[in-house]
Write a structure and sequence with these properties.
The protein is mainly α and 61 residues long. It contains two helices and no strands. The protein has one domain. Helices cover 75% and strands 0% of the residues.
Length: 61
Amino acid sequence: MRLMRFVLALIVLAIGLLWSLQGLGLVRGSFMTGQTHWLYIGILTMLVGLLGLGWASRSRI
């Protein structure tokens, strides 16, 4: 169960990073490219992923 939480948190973190990079215009080919609100959504998503990593590392199960 702990491994599942860890992997899920990493996936959320990676999606947040991708959205942030698209919001900055560094990853092209999407409707999100260059849209700054996707940068902010990505940053919030990365924070959720980091919180999930902390939660997964502290759980015993």
